[in-house]
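Render this sequence as a predicted structure.
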Amino acid sequence: MQLPQRPGQASSCCLSSSGDFRPIKFAGFVLHLLHQSIVAGVDVALRALHPRLPLHPGFVAYQAQLPPGRKRNTFCAIMSLMPGTLPCGTSGDGSLAIHCLDVTQPVVEQLSMEETLCMGALGSAKSDA
């Protein structure tokens, strides 16, 4: 494996080696991620500070569509930026263990939607290296 020589090369080598990166979809995904981060950040702050709002922390298992590799690692890194969710590892069956602040919320469904958007921006899962 060759190390990146230029600053911009580092992020591009982490995303895709097959040239299926989609800049327009990626820009849309970044805007979506920023919006979701703000909404989730406000929700987390309200749950943490308001005594009557529920806070049910725990773990959920998420079966990712992406196989282990760069794109799945990129998705996990993106997930770790979202307030209220934190990938903590994998189980024996390959599912991701996700810590969340409220296990009663539709966390798995939200992660599935985020992964689909991420796959659209980074390219198909079949070309993961």
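Summary. The CA atoms of residues 41 and 83 lie 5 Å apart. The two ends are 12 Å apart (CA to CA).
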